Amino acid sequence: MRNYLKTFNILTDDEIDLFEKKVIHKKINKGDFFIREGQTSKEVGFVISGLFRSFYHSSSEEEVTYCFTFSNSFVSAYSSFLSQNKTTENIQALTNIELLTISRDEILKLQESSINWLRLFKFIAEQEYIKMEKRIFLLQKETAEQRYRDLLTNQPEFLQLVPLNYLSSYLGITQRHLSRIRKLISN
Fold this sequence. Notes:
This protein is of the alpha+beta class. It has a domain of 113 residues: Jelly Rolls (Sandwich). It has 9 helices and 8 strands. A 4-stranded antiparallel beta sheet has the order 1-8-3-6. Strands 2-7-4-5 form a 4-stranded antiparallel beta sheet. A hairpin with a 5-residue loop joins strand 4 and strand 5. The chain starts with a helix and ends with a helix.
């Protein structure tokens, strides 16, 4: 995590040391949840190893996967974390997970201790917004085949690590349609 925080060139070594003193090491078993629908997000995690899936339930109670979180990434029910309202999302471990967590209270204290923390959190929020906007545009503008090709090019790890039922949900298509697309592209 130290190396990851250093890549932003925002925090001092002392600020990173302070952060490391505040985190809690946790393990989450495959199938267990980081947060469930109806809970309020009180922490942010940094994934050391493993893979999370974020999903919500549609009006027809179907699970819709909208995000995957891999190693060396932060994970949170961010809207709930900010607003302190109950979340509508679920974040579930697709593998055994090792992560470091920090409470919302500790993050607020960090923000008060140095402008660098505000700069870092602002930068991370901006990057997440850009990623979300790209995903929305891809879903609304492109065909399912093009969305799959985009994954092949930009996120091939999804295709290797994510089960097909979650991958098809992420792409907004049925598993059968995903199988047809994969067969078409591999020929």
